[in-house]
Amino acid sequence: MSEPTVTPEATSPEPAVDAAGPTPPETAAAPPTGAVGTARNIALAAMLFAVAMTFIDQTIVAIASPSIQQELSLTRSGTQWVINAYLLALAATFALGGRLADVLGHRRMVILGIVGFAGSSALCGATPTGSAAETWIITFRVLQGVSAAIMIPAALAVVVAAFPLHERGRALAVFFGVSGALTAIGPIAGGYLTQWTWRAIFWINIPVAIIALVLTLLAKIPPSRRREVIDWAGAGLVALGMGLSVLGFEQAPVWGWDSPLTWACLAAGLVVLVIFARFELRRRSPLIKVRVFRDKAFVVDNVVLFFSMIAFVPAFFFASTYSQISLGFDANEAGLYLLVFFAGFAPAAQVGGRMLDRGGARRPMVLGSALGAVGFALWADKLTDLSFNAQWPYIVMAGAGIGLLLGPASTDAVNRAIDASYGEVTGITQTVRNYGSALGIAVLGTVLATVLTSRLTDALVGFGLTPDDAHSVATAAAHQQNQEAFASVPAALQPKIQDAVAHSFASASQWVFYGMAIALGVSFLAALRHPRTPRTEAAASSTASV
User: Fold this and answer.
1) I need a labelling partner for 345 at 20 to 30 A (CA). Which of 148, 271, 274, 281 fits?
2) Is-contact 383 509, C-beta < 8 A?
3) Residue 18: in which H helix or E strand, if any?
4) What are the phi and psi torsion angles at 12 (to 5°)?
5) What is the distance between the alpha carbons of residues 49 and 402, in angstroms, rounded to a whole number?
6) E strands, 238-290, where?
7) By three-state DSSP, how is residue 22 classified?
8) Spatial contact of 50 and 155, defined as CB atoms under 8 Å apart
9) Which of 333-354 are b and which e, b meaning 16 or more Cβ less than 10 Å from the residue's Cβ?
């Protein structure tokens, strides 16, 4: 199947512009090949450390969430928002971050993002106890997300610009693979640090930020700016649309699915996103060039990313909570439980990059989606056994599936970005990824709370509570700390209740992980529609420069 043709609006890229004006053509002799290679590698290492903080945060906070909930007396919904506020802010502002990177310069935005992320991390770690705790930590998690949205598209654009197309698949495989390996530090570090204090999971970002800043300065990344208008109205619309839709799913267990407020948020979010798309088509300098979605392969790449992210990031949160509630693991053991996922993810990411370089993105996306769907389904099937030994092969399989598809889908989307800069297009793909993650946590969290309430109600009725009392206690347990929820239950029933909670939570988690398998099944069907023709150097020649 031949690759769809997209006609660029301009036949030549815009020149990079710095504060002094247009950058003159390079007249000096080209640096030695070894010097170029060294500069590229330093730039790659710098960007790896920069984004490492954001990847580590996706797992390390999940490990510590039970400790955070207990010490700060958060509701279960509030604890979920500690995770989702970051993802939602990241998704809602990522497109703007990509645009800012193009207009203000990639190096500048990387540095600003690193400083902002480290500062907001420090303030998350300084969350006071008391009534202000929930508002405080969620606010600075939002600022972490905004800082990451400023930094990540600029960092990806730096890596993309540093390597020619024929080396880019391997470079981005290293980028995503090592980032995945650094993400694997999250469960281990989170387990050990939480034994001391959960606050340290945020403070660990500060030394990582210092290393990233030093390497960024050593890399001597050339300045690049484009004199263009920033679409602030579009940024506001996309943030509002995403925020409302995720809020509706997130609060559905609290407000109820029969609440007009739940459906008003969902409907309003969808309407605002449609308005945003139509608005962008009429803008001379849109936040997102919607026309890039005319490329079928680009659309497929983003559909695969969206549905795979419904499984990827939420898996850390739900698996961590499951391991501590149902398996009885402490934070250290929960970290090792999640680490098994990366035993499949990291090597598969390298294989996926090589497959991309040899034959395009279709094959690793199809194989990765299929492997991941089967892995998550088998993992889900074993959750109610309450046995790690029965689960670990399928955890590795699930990780390998995600690792195989993630780099190729992201890289292929960037390589097909005709008539849009790399910073802008990475903004689109990362927005899709993080919106999928945020929706995944919201929707699957609703599934978890609903099933958990039902299973616990049945168990408590079996222990002799009236249906009304059982439902009331089970509902409270599904949304807040168990020890508070069961305070009114007779002491004689407490040992039985602990066992009932472990099995009910495992049963609810099983539904969640089956949902992840279904999402990857949709990803597989989408990947089958990807054009077989890989992106070529010649086809990329009209891509706008960074």
Assistant:
1) 148
2) yes
3) strand 17-18
4) -135, 145
5) 22
6) none
7) strand
8) yes
9) ebbebbbbbbebbbbbbbbbbe
Residue among 379, 384, 426 nearest 402 (CA): 379
Q: Kindly report each contact of residues 13-22 with a partner whose C-beta sits within 8 Å and lies 24 or more positions away, as own/partner.
A: 13/543, 13/544, 13/545, 14/226, 14/544, 14/545, 16/222, 16/223, 16/224, 16/225, 16/226, 16/545, 16/546, 17/224, 17/225, 17/226, 17/227, 18/105, 18/223, 18/224, 18/225, 19/223, 19/225
Token output for 43: 């730039």
Which pair of tokens denotes residue 469?
């009392």
User: Encoding tokens for residue 92?
Assistant: 């809602």
CA-CA distance, 449 to 451, in Å (whole number)? 6
The pLDDT profile of the chain, 546 residues, written as one tens digit per residue, is 333 333 333 333 333 333 333 333 333 344 444 555 677 788 888 888 888 888 777 667 877 777 888 888 887 678 878 887 887 788 788 878 878 887 888 888 999 999 999 999 999 999 998 888 888 999 999 999 899 988 888 887 788 777 776 676 677 767 766 665 666 666 677 777 887 888 988 998 899 899 999 988 887 777 766 677 788 888 889 889 888 887 887 777 777 778 889 899 989 989 998 998 888 888 877 877 777 788 888 899 999 999 999 998 889 889 988 998 899 888 778 878 888 998 898 889 889 888 888 888 899 999 999 999 999 999 999 999 999 999 999 999 999 999 999 889 988 887 776 555 565 676 678 778 878 887 888 889 889 888 988 888 888 888 777 787 777 777 766 665 545 556 556 666 666 777 888 888 999 999 999 999 999 999 999 999 998 765 544 344 333 333
**CA–CA separation, 217 vs 119, rounded Å?**
19
Residue 360: both structure tokens together: 């395009």
Report the length, in residues, of the chain.
546
Angle at 393 between CA 390 and CA 394, to 5 degrees: 90
List, in order, residues 6 or more apart from 359 with CB less than 8 Å away: 534
Distance between CA atoms of 39 and 277, rounded to whole angstroms? 39
**128 φ/ψ angles, rounded to the nearest 5 degrees:** -75, 155
Right CATH for 36-222+287-468+485-534 from 1.20.1250.20, 3.40.190.10, 3.60.15.10, 3.40.50.720 = 1.20.1250.20
